[in-house]
Write a structure and sequence with these properties.
Layout (H helix, E strand, L loop, with lengths): L25 H16 L6 H27 L4 H4 L5 E5 H5 L8 E7 L5 H13 L4 E7 L6 E6 L2 E9 L22 H19 L3 H17 L12 H14 L5 H14 L6 E2 L31 E2 L14 H23 L19 E8 L3 H23 L4 E6 L15 E10 L5 E4 L1 H17 L8 E8 L28 E4 L29 E2 L10 H8 L33 E2 L1
Parallel strand pairs: 2-5, 6-7, 11-13, 14-15
Antiparallel strand pairs: 1-2, 3-4, 4-5, 8-10, 8-12, 9-10
Amino acid sequence: MATNGGSGPTKTYGTTSAISDAPPKPKDLLLTKELEEHLHARDYFETPEELEQRVVVLARLNALVKEWIVHASMKKMPESLARDQNGKVFTFGSYRLGVHNKGADIDTLCVAPRHVDRSEFFADFADMLRAEPGIKDLTPVEDAFVPVLKFSLNDIEIDLLFARLALQSIPVDLDLLDVNLLRNLDMKSVRSLNGCRVTDRILQLVPSVETFRLALRCIKLWAKCRGIYNNKLGFLGGVSWAMLVARTCQLYPNAAASTIVTKFFLLLSKWEWPRPVLLDNLITQEEAPLDMEIWDPRHNVQDRFHLMPIITPAFPQQNSTFNVTKSTLDVMREEFQRGLEVMQLIEEGAKDWTELWQESSFFTSYKHFIVLTAIAQCKDDMQAWLGLVESKLRKLVQSLERNGLITRAHVNPKSHGPMPEEEHQFALRWFIGLQFQSMEGVSVDLTYDIQSFVNNVHRQAISNKIFRDGMQIDAKYFKRKDLVQFLPSSLLKVKKRSMGKADGRKARTLSVSEVTSSPTELTSPAHQEKKSLAAEGPPEIVDPEQEGTADTPAAAEKKAGPNADAVDSPSAIKRPADKHGEPVKKRPCNDADVAS
């Protein structure tokens, strides 16, 4: 246990003792007050009336669930017993954490007894909702990895999951953290329960919930402004950012929210990925209370290739960031470093909090772009088609990253609709910024990678039975100066700044033939060699006894030795060579720090 200035032992939070349990200084409290004022100035908090409206909506939804459970039970038991049956609605995500902003949706979970089936939820309950006044835009997504009903109730968007428990009835005081509730459940119910279980566990593991909430509001706003808030595209989602802030709170249990934000950037700018972030002790596969797959790189080979593991604290423990790619990790590392520098200026009084939340300059950071447009024939087809294309974009990025000449493939998480004068108005457009090795006279052909992506999306759409006539994917290469046909000129204003060594200044030929969505079976061109980093073998697994308190900055510096500033020290793995026989320079990941 850590000690508090000689006044006795203090509680240890998480897997290690605190780095510092010092109380906040007056300056820290003043900065925290300024932080809260800036967030209020941005209209980031809901009014008491808006909060009350959410409570009313949730109460109505809970009543509808109970009514439906009774009706569903009457088909399978006497009416006298059916009327005693119960269902319950739980919340999770940003609303449950207490960090939602104006207009945010509410993540909810419907829990039902064992005699009520998921098919009834997506059929009978969905029909019941359609008949209710105030319900709009109801969309069942039954075939998703985590099935969900999407709708709005009194203009508040709701995502409603479903879990059928192995219980005869649902008690009023049901505790979802009870691991025994997971027994004899199908995996869709387990995954649906996971959101509530993780959210509740995070709140249990932080020293001060109010400090955690204010710091997390700040970090979420920063991540959205800097374009790194999107789980589908390889960045982090809300629960991952929450766990990173929670870990910082554990290491500085008495700090004010402003200090937590500074230490957040300090920790993550020095963190030796792929060392996992843990809020609680990791359960191994042998110790698991139930026969469920958990994140354990010693047993699961695929877990060894995760680049930025952040492990959920509730059983079954999973990595919430398996979507992270080399490029997105590289971008986030830069943003962590920038955040630390800005926070130092804020603490010195040279800048205020608005500097931290400056919008990122994505379009001025790259010279080369792939413009990917998903087109639908009508509004009814848009949601499913555009959602599928976005969910697969990460695969295209990973394919581009395997090209030895590409050092970064960065998807802008903010998509853009069509310009007013365009023919196709039911469309959405993504921009992928590219950086290359600095080589002269090198020809780069990306047509195969992009056509393969298009084919894969089409096959998935046909398999999911969502493909309709008129659904297309259009992919073309453009230089930054040519993007004005897709974007307002204000977004493309060039700033005088260093683009780095791999910005593509030297002459090269970049070829991306116009790719349409006509699916064809292609084979890779013979001249286009691609070597996967996965073939280099998994990272070494470090014995937990040798880990110590390695997730502190001091331990990280000691481990790094005299070159402590070079967190990303060169790996001993032999890298693939380019077409001239020279080793391809890549920003390496630490390949010996996957803790178990």
